[in-house]
Amino acid sequence: MALTIAQKIIKEHLVSGNMTVGEEIGLKIDQTLTQDATGTMAYLEFEAMNCKRVKTELSVAYIDHNTLQSGFENADDHRYIQSVAAKYGLRFSRAGNGICHQVHLERFSKPYKTLIGSDSHTPTCGGMGMLAFGAGGLDVAVAMSGGAYYITMPKIYKIELTGRLRPFVSAKDIALEILRLISVKGGVGAIIEFGGDGIKHLTVPERATITNMCTEVGATTSVFPSDEVTLDFLRRQKRECDFVPLSADEGAGYDKVIKIRLDSLEPLIACPHSPDNVVKVSALKGVKVDQVCIGSCTNSSLADMNKVAAIFKGKRIADGVSLSVSPGSKQTLCALAKSGALNDILHSGARLLECACGPCIGMGFSPNSAGVSLRTFNRNFFGRSGTKDAQVYLVSPETAAASALKGEITDPRELSAVSPLPLPLPETFETDDGAIIAPLDEAEAEKAEVLRGPNIKPVPVGEKLTDAIRAKIALKVGDNITTDHIMPAGAKILPYRSNIPRLSEFCFSAVDENFETRAKEYKNSVIIGGINYGQGSSREHAALVPLFLGVKAVIAKSFARIHSANLINAGIIPLTFENEDDFNKLGEGAEIEISNLFSGLKDGRFTLKDIKTGKNYALCGNFTARQREILQYGGLLNYMKEQAENEKN
User: Fold this and answer.
1) Is the dihedral of CA 620, 623, 628, 632 positive or negative?
2) Farthest-apart Cα atoms in the chain, separation
3) Could you point out which of 165, 288, 548, 568 has its C-alpha 20 to 30 Å from the C-alpha of 71?
4) CA 615, CA 165: separation in Å to the nearest integer?
5) pLDDT, tens only, 565-608
């Protein structure tokens, strides 16, 4: 049987289930990564499993999100993560070394391997031919302890790229075109593979930009072949020994094929407040720009930065523009400094920020009131920038730089005085892994202490399921609610990521400032949501905090994949309406009962009763046998402990 790229990697790593679409499969995981916004919780969960050493081929803990140390909280989290990494066998990437996805792509990614990370943009490494998944921290903790990663076997879509990009049109424009074509939910339940003669003209960092952004279409993951382009990148990183060729078999079948002619594309822009609200840059010509941010895990490679430097060389940004530039890694920053390109960027009037996520997650550099901000990032959700009334647009580095110079949205093809891009990369990168600290050996690790600060609180744990839930509807929200809506980020909130009680004060604050008070008053509650509930970041805090506040179930029209898994891991039941019109018949404050849960978990059918009106509403919930057990035990941690006890006996 002819296999696709994803099917080949899945077959190689399959530990349970069959490669039948819709069936649950368990995968052996080769590598894991965490970042500090999710890492503390993931390692607290790992410690709760009483595992003495990570069992993956490689696990890396990155510090790249909470790098603003305005109090002791973030510094304590960083110290805790470093001590955990030393004791349990992980590598530790210091703050300032770079964004996890960029550094992992440069230094650790390997074709044909599997990777999960507690960050939704982990599929970035699909640009290297890895099967890389974003996941909740608890799933990462399980993988580090040697457990499998479970997903529903996805469909496989192919995006066939033909031709070659024209000057000043970039990989970011390919990603935005994909979003324009299939929307933020068009990839749900699918892995996206790339092929066609156009891919030979795309470098690994360009491929990684595309796989990074395919997270925004809801795809399980996305992947490119491993070919001569891959080998060239690894050679430049002095890692050619990691190369493995990988391509789809001739005649491999796909559930859907989408064709994109690269030479027909032009610069694109995603308008507020969704990555799929895409139009041509030329359609917005002349819109005044207040702020431009260049960087993030999507567009912070050396090639991206070189393009920006070439556009800025000898020029100054417009007086009314505030510009930030964030190289994705220390390697990139050092290369820019050595070549002189950094001088061209700085002399333009740019502010150089740390090699970190920064403005992408609202960690500083928020726009002015009602400001127009152009960003080379991957998300422009409402309020994510830290300024609620900001108008955030997503663009390529070329469009960002051109617009910064003119002070208005500008098609970069108007830059006739600039030589066509891209620019050549160095034959070999200067690799310095000195900011990546190796773990202690096992003998030393036995005596090592894990260092905890006062802001680090225990992981909330669910209760065993009863056959009925009686609760009140604490909140009703619409379509495309993101994990940023549920559990916001930003400089004021991120320091409490390891303190769920304190963090709970901010839950749904961007939607309803009274939610936390109401949920505590109700004690037991449910949330009603629309289509694609929980899209965006993989942050499991968007499940753990509702658990802490007494949320027993979330009932929506549909769920984003990672958030649904996180709810189950937390012991919260994700259910959908059998009839979507019933969404309109239930309101906040209504007292409801969902009964016969045990039988419902088996047959997938549930009944919700409105206590006041006596009306019944049909709900659905299709769970695997493993998910049913997890929910019955009150979450994955309880389930893992029960499994461990059973093995002892």
Assistant:
1) negative
2) 75
3) 548
4) 58
5) 999 999 999 999 999 999 999 999 999 999 999 999 999 999 99
Q: In which residue are the tokens 């696709």 written?
A: 4
Read off the pLDDT of residues 440-460 as tens digits, 9 standing for 90 and up: 999 999 999 999 999 999 999
| Measured distance CA(286)–CA(197) in Å, rounded | 36
Q: Which of 578, 573, 585 is nearest to 546 (CA)?
A: 573
Closest CA to 569 of 45, 115, 190: 45
Chain centroid to Cα 17, Å, comes to: 26
**Rounded CA separation 107/93 (Å):** 11
Nearest to 318 by CA among 284, 349, 341: 349
Alpha-carbon gap, residue 510 to 47, rounded angstroms: 33
Q: Which residue from 159, 275, 156, 158 is spatially nearest to 220, judged by alpha carbons?
A: 156
Helices (H), 243-370: 302-312, 330-339, 341-347
Q: Beta strands of 141-248 (E only): which ranges?
A: 149-152, 155-162, 190-195, 221-223
Full DSSP string of 173-194: HHHHHHHHHH-TTTTBTEEEEE
The position carrying tokens 């424009």 is 173
Element (H or E) spanning 484, and its range? helix 483-486
- pTM, two decimals, is 0.93
Q: Whose CA is closest to 451, among 41, 45, 77?
A: 77
Structural contact between residues 183 and 151, judged by C-beta atoms closer than 8 angstroms: no
**Run of H or E residues at 279:** strand 278-280
Cα–Cα distance measured from residue 227 to residue 173, given in angstroms and rounded to the nearest whole number? 23
